[in-house]
Every structure is written in C-alpha cells, then in structure tokens.
Write a structure and sequence with these properties.
By secondary structure, the protein is of the alpha/beta class. Helices cover 19% and strands 32% of the residues. The protein has a 6-stranded mixed sheet, with no helix packed on it.
Length: 405
C-alpha cells in the first residue's frame, strides 16, 4: 500500500463528509452543566435587573432636589422609611441591590452626606439615575444569552441562575474509546524494571486520556494495552466500536511490517473508508483515519508528543467541527518569534514553544527539543504554532499567530 501523506484540512473535510455524529439530548441541573455543550439557543425570559435598583449603599432621593448642593450649600432631606417618597424633601435609606422607592430617581452614597438625627445633608449634586442600575441594563427580555454549540462556562451558570433558569438542554456526552497497542508497552504499574527488561512504560495513551478528560462533554473508555497481534487488535477494536462513537488508537500505525494496527482496523469491515493513511504533518506523520460503519477510527503515533499534537489538531478539531461547537479550542495571540525556525515543505510543522512578555509585545521561543517522544518538550512549552507546509520557516522577529496551550 502506498503511504500517502494527506494534508490535514483535506482529510478533515473528507471525514466530515463521511461521518455525521448524532447525539441525544438531556436536561441537566445547572450544577451539572459546566463543560457540557448547549443543544439549543437560550433566551432571557425577563429583564435583568427586573427593576431599577440601587447600585450603592446610601439614600434614595429626587435628583432635582439637590441640583444646587455643595459643601458650602448642603441640602437637608428628612429621612423616611418605606417603598415610596412622599415628597422630594425626603430620603429613604437603601442598600446595594434594593429596589428603588417610587418617586426616587437617584441614590446619594453614605459618604456624600452628613447625617444629623433624622436628617441628612447632601453635599454634592446628583444627575438623574446616578448610582442606579436601570431595569434591563444588563440583559433585556428576549435577548439571546447563549447559543447552541457553546460550551457552558461558569458565567453562563451565573446568568442562567440570575434569570431563574434552573435546567438547561445539552447534548449528551460523546463516548470515545481509547486503545494502546504494542507488545513492548506495559502499564506504569509494572514499574521501572520494565526498561531493564526491554519494555516501555505507557505514557502515550495516558496522555491522550488525560487530555480528553479535560472536556466534560467527552466520556472516555479505556480498553487496555493490546499486543501486536492482528486478531487481538481486531477483537479489541470491535468491542470498542460497539460501545463508542469514536475510537482512538495509539501505536502500531506506521508503515513497518511490525505495525499491525492499520491492517487490523481495515480488515474489520468489507468496505472500510480510508480517509488518510498518514497525514502531511510533523510530528505525527503516521496519523491515519479510517471510517468503519460511520464511526471514525483515529490511529495515532505511539510517541506521546506526536500523538498529543495529532489529538489536538486532528481528533479534537474534527470533534468540534462535527458537533458544531462554536468555542475556539485554543486562544490564539500574535507573537514575535525569537529564533529562526524551519519548516518542511509539503508538511504542516507544529512547533512547541514558550510564550512570554517582551516589553510591550508578546514573544514566542521555539522549544528546540526534537523528537516525537520527548515529553519534556511538552512540559516546558505553553504554546504551539504551525509552520504551514508551503512556508520554509520563520525568521527571528516575524510576527505569527500562536496557540496558547
């Protein structure tokens, strides 16, 4: 089989044409909503605030009654209590958030008055609605406050609560199975003696599962480490496909005769759809994608860095697009490159980097630790940028877009 490296965007476009993710819906309490994906637009049922209210602790008054107030001309107002002013010669004590008394259109702060028994003296003029939060100034009734496809954040929950919304409709969690392959790979519980015995402690699939766990709308299922045996791999893949909507496999996807995973996957179905047998990306060239009965199977490198980058730029990129998630996966910022960095014509090259302030600018320094298995490069990086496949590289001082990890 020809090992053809397909551009990432071409592979994703093809995959989105062949796979349609269909998720059910669920109504959840707000306590369980953060991190889930909204399944419908949400509109405000009421104005917020629902009424004019005081923005400070002080006294509700008529602004016109103190238009000439000053330290040399304090205006006396009689303190009254209740929910309405009888006249503009009165003032009613209010606290922050309290509904404005009828007839009052401003609030004078406590520190701007002199109190003498049942009378206050206002020492400065106030404009109409000074220190007053107007009805609907935050949110208007009928206003869209959240859109289908948004990932629910804590601030959403706060707004929903303030509007009296206690349950929200979300997409059910998507289930992603994860399998590790490799006869040389063992669980970390095996201990460091594994290295002396010719084995490798698994870090790649653990990194993938940990990265997926950051998304609350994903339910990850682990199917263990499978030896380089096509029959065993097929059995594990069949079980995982029956129980999940997406499958991610680490290891065994290269072109070597020792790499059994790809053949095991394509031999499961009579008509597998091979989206890509390798992608034009570095690191992560062995990354392959196969569709089995409308379910995507992502085959990632056994090296942790390559697998982690492919997870983000391929797997999660697909997932966000397929689910119509409107949130950006990463915050991107412009930054100056501090060192010359080379790309590779024909490949999208993903560079681990550190981003930091340099004067009034942001700078990004490539982490020049090469190799798809160098975990330390991820540890000391806080950003990622791509050198496009049609670009030779970036020079020192070039301003580029950088993704913050």
């Amino acid at each position: 089989m020809i090992y053809h490296y397909k551009p990432i965007e071409e592979a994703l476009k093809s995959l989105l044409q062949h796979v349609k993710l269909e998720l059910g819906f669920a109504e959840v309490e707000l306590d369980n909503a953060v991190g889930m994906v909204l399944a419908e637009d949400v509109y405000a049922p009421i104005d917020l605030p629902l009424f004019d209210r005081s923005a400070v602790d002080g006294y509700a008054i008529c602004s016109g009654a103190v238009s000439s107030a000053s330290p040399n001309n304090p205006i006396p107002l009689k303190i009254q209590f209740g929910d309405a002013l009888n006249s503009c010669d009165e003032a009613i004590p209010v606290v922050t958030g309290q509904k404005m008394p009828i007839g009052a259109d401003a609030v004078v702060m406590i520190e701007d008055v002199i109190r003498d028994s049942n009378t206050i003296y206002v020492t400065r003029p106030l404009s109409k609605y000074a220190n007053v939060s107007r009805r609907g100034e935050d949110i208007k009734a009928g206003e869209k406050i959240a859109s289908k496809g948004e990932i629910i954040k804590p601030v959403h929950v706060a707004i929903f609560s303030a509007l009296g919304i206690t349950r929200i409709r979300v997409f059910e969690k998507i289930s992603i199975g994860v399998i590790a392959t490799g006869s040389e790979v063992v669980e970390p519980t095996y201990g460091i003696r594994a290295y002396e015995e010719g084995f490798i402690l698994d870090s790649t699939s653990i990194l993938i599962r940990a990265a997926l766990s950051e998304y609350r709308f994903i339910n990850t299922k682990w199917y263990g480490i499978i030896k380089d045996d096509e029959k065993q791999i097929k059995e594990a893949v069949l079980k995982a496909l029956n129980e999940n909507q997406i499958l991610v496999i680490t290891g065994g996807t290269g072109p070597s005769d020792h790499d059994k995973t790809f053949n095991a996957v394509i031999n499961i179905d009579k008509n597998p759809i091979i989206i890509a047998r390798g992608l034009a990306m570095k690191p992560g060239r062995p990354t392959s994608i196969v569709v089995i009965e409308n379910k995507p199977v992502f085959l990632l490198s056994g090296f942790p860095v390559a697998a982690y980058i492919a997870l983000n730029v391929v797997v999660l990129n697909f997932l966000f697009k397929a689910l119509g998630i409107s949130d950006e996966m990463f915050v991107e910022v412009p930054a100056l490159v501090t060192k010359k960095v080379s790309g590779s014509i024909g490949y999208d090259t993903f560079v681990r980097a550190r981003i930091f302030r340099c004067g009034d600018e942001l700078c990004t320094e490539p982490v020049l630790l090469h190799g798809s298995g160098v975990l330390k490069s991820l540890l000391i990086s806080n950003a990622l940028f791509a050198v496009p496949r049609n670009v030779e590289g970036f020079d020192r001082g070039d301003k580029i877009w950088v993704k913050i990890l």
